[in-house]
Amino acid sequence: MGLTGIQIFKLLPKTNCGDCGVPTCLAFAMNLASGKAELDKCPHVSDEAKEQLASESAPPIRPVTIGTGDLAVKIGGETVLFRHEKTFVNPPGLATVVSTDEDDPSVQGKIDRFKECQFDRVGLLLKSEMFVVSDTSGDGAKLTALAKKVSDATGAALVLKSDNVDALKSAAGELKDRKPLIYAATSANVDALGELAREVACPLAVKGDGTLESVIALTEKLTGMGLKDLVLDTGTRDLKKAFEEQIKIRRAALKDKFRPLGFPTILMANEMAEGLMEEALVAATFVAKYGGVIALSDLQPHVMFPLFLERLNIYTDPQRPMTAEQGIYPINNPDENSPVLVTCNFSLTYFIVSGEIESSRVPAWLCVQDTEGLSVMTAWAAGKFSGESVGQFINKCGIKDKVKHQKIVIPGYAAGISGELEEELPGWSVMVGPREASQIPKYLKGWSSS
Fold first, then answer.
1. Secondary structure (3-state) at 196
2. Paired residues of 93 in beta bridges
3. Is 341 within the bounds of a domain?
4. How many independent structural domains does the chain possess?
5. Phi and psi based region of residue 443 (left: phi greater than 0; alpha: psi -120 to 50; beta: remaining)
6. Which of 34, 114, 250, 275 has the fewest CB neighbours in a 10 Å radius?
7. 322/179 Cα distance (integer angstroms)
């Protein structure tokens, strides 16, 4: 049984120096107990305490970072089996496979689609982050050249994939500063690739023969060599079996604290399906069930967008709604005669409403009130979007200094607050806008400040 946060705290230096990234030793101890931090983050812990805490404080699933820069992918580090228990924290990296036997137009096409396949969604940029660069000939120079071309053009995190140890040595040696994932150590080459991963300080994937036992044997050997940053591939290419293995791996790591399986996983969806659409179904399965890196043969907008949305939804904290910042948002260059609308700060509501205002081409002021991430109807029912709260917000936010009229538009679903709001805003006319955001453009075009 693991140590509690208080038990760990007693073994820490209690300096509250903050060097670990949190303000107090007690907070750090609690993070260690819950698997959210690593003991190495504390530079002042004694050797005696380090020895006692090392095994107890390590996260049940080791966090592994692949790549560098803005597109670096951090996987693993999860602490729960189900999202509703707490939250999932490190979303899987979605990768595109490019191989050395592809011609230049094919490679360039994937690079171009990687750059173009990006979507704005509730204020976030949804996109792919990785390439699997696959060697098909055992030629290290070709693998290195292709990996450099892809990395230089996109900045993507890389997975270097080859059955040839010398090819991997060549490519990993040249690209070690970019921290690629080396794929993959097997029973036949584990010693050589273990030494390579240690030499270049890059994460290493292990590939079993279709059984968890084979994976366990590999991870035990590699951790015995001092390697920590490992990624698991059981070698299974059957969807049902791979699905079952992902669950077994996660349960063994979290419930049984079984260290040999306490690592994130990689799934080759391109090797488990025929055609990109089937690959998308496989990828969707493992976005939901514990995949760390998921590779597809290509990326097309109609395939990637649903995967991006699934990943966003699953890896959003269910206990913390996504919110927009409270304040005044000028849209379409408004002036002192432009309409004033008010809404809640639930992120989806904000982006839908602001998008409709923008598409109307009518200059307007959008006042966004903090409702703790609740939608208009929910916030109204909870008393967080009332005439009193909206009135106080309007009085304090500064919108009165930006317009010379005294009219405000409230959402149709909050029509019930109009009387109370008029009492809070003497002299102002409260206008009830449409119930549906899609009707905002038509409404605004008929609005007048006179």
1. helix
2. 293
3. yes
4. 3
5. alpha
6. 275
7. 32
Which of 16-30, 189-203, 259-273, 386-400 is predicted least confidently? 16-30
Q: What is the CATH number of the domain that holds 36?
A: 1.10.15.40
pLDDT digits (tens, 9 = 90+) for 80-124: 999 888 889 999 999 999 999 999 999 999 999 999 999 987 678
Q: Is residue 241 part of a domain?
A: yes
Choose among 200, 179, 166, 88: nearest CA to 130: 179
Q: Are 431 and 406 in contact (CB under 8 A)?
A: no
pLDDT of residue 448: 66
- Band the pLDDT of 323: cuts 50, 70, 90: confident
To the nearest 10°, the Cα dihedral for 283, 284, 285, 291? 60
Cβ–Cβ < 8 Å for 168, 193: yes
151: amino acid identity, one letter: S
Q: Which domain holds residue 46?
A: 5-57
Mean pLDDT of the chain: 92
Q: Which of 253, 287, 314 is the last residue of a domain?
A: 314
Is 100 found in the same domain as 9?
Answer: no
Residues 42 and 128 in one domain: no
Residue 450 falls inside a structural domain: no
Do 258 and 377 belong to one domain? no
Q: How far is CA 20 from CA 106, 242, 340, in A?
A: 46, 37, 46
Model-wide pTM > 0.90: no
Main-chain phi, psi angles of 148, to 5 degrees: -65, -40
Helix, strand, coil % over all residues of the chain, rounded to 5: 45, 15, 35
Among 314, 345, 365, the domain boundary falls at 314
CA distance linking residue 159 with residue 182, whole number of Å: 6
State the helix-helix crossing angle for 47-57 and 25-33, rounded to 10 degrees.
40
> What tokens appear for 6 in the block?
């208080």
CA distance 357 to 440: 7
- Whether residues 295 and 344 share a domain: the answer is no
- Read off the tokens for 185: 């150590």
Report helix angle 165-175 to 190-200, nearest 10: 10
Q: Does the residue 169 lie in any domain?
A: yes
Q: Return the number of other C-beta atoms located less than 10 Å from residue 42's C-beta.
A: 24
Round to whole Å and give the CA distance between 33 and 10: 13
Which of helix, strand or coil describes residue 182? strand
Please state, in angstroms and rounded to a whole number, the distance separating the CA atoms of residues 379 and 426.
24
Chain length of the chain: 450
Residue 360's CATH number: 3.40.50.11600
The string of pLDDT tens digits covering residues 196-207 is: 999 999 999 999
Residues 52 and 85 in one domain: no
Question: Residue with structure tokens 């140890």?
Answer: 165
Residues 71 and 218 in one domain: yes
